[in-house]
Predict the structure of superoxide dismutase.
Amino acid sequence: MQAVVAAAMAAHTILTASPLLSHYPRLSPPTAPIGHTSTLHSSFHGLSLKFARQSLPLSLAASAAPKKPLAVVAATRKGVAVLKGTSNVEGVVALTQEDEGPTTVNVRVTGLTPGPHGFHLHEYGDTTNGCISTGAHFNPNKMTHGAPEDEIRHAGDLGNIVANADGVAEATIVDKQIPLSGPNTVVGRAFVVHELEDDLGKGGHELSLTTGNAGGRLACVAAVPKKRTSKSKKRIRKNIWKRKGYWAALKAYSLAKSISTGKSKSFWCESWTKE
């Protein structure tokens, strides 16, 4: 019995001096009298070292947990614009862009003479004076005119659409230089159908490297979003202001607003959606 008591006292002394007790207070040995046998028995069990599984701190748990890749949701932008002019030429331009990929342009135009017709994106979404006020081809990189597949081309050079014997032209154009968002967006600009074939900068005419010698403008549509953001409003005003001044910009914006709300039927009516 004395040997048992001596062993217990030795264990008590060792555990009291152990550094574990400073971190785990629950391991502190009881202070019951050593000579009491039943207390000694319970004290001995109290000194059994059993470590419970504890939760890691949040920061450590986050770093230890396996990281899952972030889900990337592609944004689809769409636009539908109705081409109208002073003649019988009219049509629809439907645009779609998946995330940051190229823009797909589906065009259907009626009332054309059979054959190819130049189709371009022009700099200004200003139709206050008909298609003539849309300015030159959209050309942010200051290049010469060319074909859609050329490295040297205007961003707005979309080539030709070809009308059949009934005067109907249908085409699908996929292009990387006319996004539906960003600094070079089509918003605030205009699509134009021309009278003649675009020679794609290779016709040798004095206008080949500027307009493709595509002739007059038959129909146009301003690409102005129905639900405008403050950025798109500023872009529309800025583009027209650069060409015609403040009051023309204000007038054009007011006209665009009345068209989008159905109060005017001049030149175009369109809507934009994003999903």
